[in-house]
Amino acid sequence: MSELLESVKSGAAFLGVCFLIFAVLVILAILAQRLICKDMPNRHGARYVAYVAMFSAIAGVLMLFDIPLFFAPSFYKIDLSEIPVLICTFYLGPVAGVITEFLKNLLKILMKGTTTAFVGDFANFVIGCSMVLPASIIYHCRRSRKNALIGLITGTLVMTVFGSLFNAIYLLPKFSELYGMPLESIVAMGTAVNAHITSVETLVLYAVVPFNLLKGLIVTAVVFFLYKRLSPLLSRGQYRKTK
User: Fold this and answer.
1) For 4-9, which contacts have Cβ atoms below 8 Å and span 24 or more sequence positions?
2) pLDDT tens-digit profile of 218-231?
3) What burial class does residue 200 get, using C-beta atoms within 10 Å of its C-beta: 0-12 exposed, 13-18 middle, 19+ buried?
4) Which of 3, 90, 167, 206 is 20 to 30 Å from the Cα of 184, by its Cα?
């Protein structure tokens, strides 16, 4: 009984952290949109809701097609769901980006469930936001191809640094706790694919860092060459000056 209570308590605490971080990210996005992205076009109403729903659905489906990587344990799988999230964010702003990140993970859970005690889904949301928010804020300060590239590269770097630290400090220990797998066993899964992985720190260095860099670079390349070609279609039916 005591083990069950501890499990429930741990799950409730994790759920509380999830809601708290979600609220913080939404507040940060709102503040950034109001205080920093002052020249951002005002888009609300049915079109706003429709685009958020559409890009969330596309991103949720893309999450189903995750790809394992040879240099990381099997629970680290790359997906390209940040591409539609960033396109939505570049068009609608930081708040839409956070909402789309949340909805895509919710859709993925509803369609596929979770294999990581929800820690992987939470990680995807938070670490995805760590790329999406800086990229969109920089882009909306002055909307241009140059700022889009600067924003995407900055977002990749922020995601890599933040994602690595967040994995080492919180996500891996929490996954171990909720999934019931000792950290030593998680590290051993990394050792099986890379002999240099012998601790949580080396797991982060040799698996998480290259994972986030690779994902960020792929997403950056696709979004940079795709967004300006899609923006006229997104703006069809309303006036929008493109640069």
Assistant:
1) none
2) 999 999 999 888 88
3) buried
4) 3
Q: Which element (helix H / strand E) includes 68?
A: strand 67-68
Full-model pTM: 0.89
Give the pLDDT confidence of 127-183 residue by residue, as tens digits. 999 999 999 999 998 888 999 999 999 999 999 999 999 999 999 998 888 888 899
Dihedral sign for Cα 31, 37, 41, 47, please.
negative
CA Rg value for the chain: 19
Amino acid, single-letter form, for residue 225: F
Percent helix, percent strand, percent coil in the chain, to nearest 5:
75, 0, 20
Q: Is 37 helix (H, G, I), strand (E, B) or coil?
A: coil
